[in-house]
Design a protein that fits this description.
The chain has seven helices and 14 strands. By secondary structure, it is of the alpha+beta class. The chain has one domain: Extracellular Endonuclease, Chain A (3-Layer(aba) Sandwich).
């Protein structure tokens, strides 16, 4: 099924695409290869569309990270979560699989994979619970400073100078508001490896912020919310009738400005059931009247464009609904 263009997303939503893509997400996986079917039809960019979603090669399954070679047992619904932070959190945050394993960095309360070419993250993973999101009186955002990530080679880092007078906000991928657990966790969200250039008014400060707030809101009814966030660089058709992947770069480091951003929410109910919601938003000012549901897309829309699979360690049969529709 052809992808939906940005104009169509903003004007009429993507409910038709979601219905069609849901079948591909669930039925396009055979028993021998649960991730992809050889007969699965790739996305095709049609001439009358302004942007599209590129097919991506099949990714090899990755085993969930296992610290100290110990098995990370699933957390049953309703059990109070571990509120500590540190390297051992990797197994809990990533228990449903790593999308990729290149240039992975584990912070005290989130995990990311860094894109050295584009100077921003490929994806960022978080694990949210109601208890972990409680505002801590000793934690302050006001004293946090955006800073270079010293774990990234200087050749491939983004810097504050790259953003200076660029016209773009330094937009969080792992939202600062998700990490009130302690000051260190809050501070670490300000590493520039966790930042992407985002349009400010209408996007970072408005529509994208609403989606971040919605992810936190889900913890009120869900025992666990696993969040994957990242940039996308989607093709568009130009005046010559040809399709190009075109995006701006900023600063001396040529930091890529994503055309779109995705966010995937894997929500576990108190009874242990999983429900998946997946969103793509254009990196532009968005009308405040457009509901978040208008930006829901089939999961494979993100997977084919990003080049990796979402929550690969979780069997798809365990997901009861996708974007509110039964699987």
């Amino acid at each position: 099924m052809p992808p939906t263009g940005t104009a169509k997303i903003l004007a009429a939503g993507i409910s038709a695409v979601a219905v069609g893509g849901l079948g591909g997400f669930v039925l396009g996986r055979s028993t021998s290869d649960p991730r992809r079917s050889a007969s699965h039809t790739p996305f095709v960019v049609h001439a009358d569309q302004k942007d599209g979603l590129q097919p991506a090669a099949t990714q090899t399954a990755l085993a969930p990270y296992n610290p100290q070679n110990k098995t990370v047992a699933p957390m049953p619904g309703g059990v109070a979560p571990d509120l500590s932070v540190g390297p051992h959190r990797v197994g809990e945050i990533m228990k449903h699989g790593f999308p990729t394993t290149d240039t992975v960095r584990s912070r005290s309360d989130y995990v990311l994979a860094y894109d050295r070419k584009n100077r921003t993250a490929l994806w960022v993973a978080e694990h949210l619970t109601a208890e972990r999101l409680k505002d801590r009186t000793k934690v302050s955002r006001s004293g946090c400073d955006f800073k270079d990530d010293p774990s990234i080679h200087p050749y491939f880092r983004s810097t504050n100078e790259d953003y200076f007078r660029s016209g773009f906000d330094r937009g969080h991928l792992a939202a600062a508001g998700n990490h009130w657990i302690n000051q260190e966790s809050m501070d670490e969200t300000f590493y520039l490896s966790n930042i992407s250039p985002q349009v400010g008014v209408g996007f970072n400060r408005d529509a994208w912020n609403k989606l971040e707030q919605y992810a936190r809101f889900k913890t009120k009814s869900c025992s666990n919310v696993y969040v994957l966030t990242g940039p996308l660089y989607l093709p568009s058709m130009l005046e010559d009738g040809k399709t190009y992947v075109k995006y701006q770069v900023i600063g001396m480091s040529n930091v890529a400005v994503p055309t779109h951003f995705f966010k995937a929410l894997l929500c576990q109910s108190p009874s242990g059931e999983y429900h998946l919601e997946t969103y793509v938003m254009p990196n532009k000012a968005i009308d405040d009247k457009i509901p978040l549901q208008a930006f829901q897309v089939p999961p494979d829309t993100i997977e084919r464009s990003a080049g990796f699979l979402l929550f690969e360690g979780l069997p798809r049969t365990a997901v009861k609904t996708v974007n509110g529709k039964k699987t």
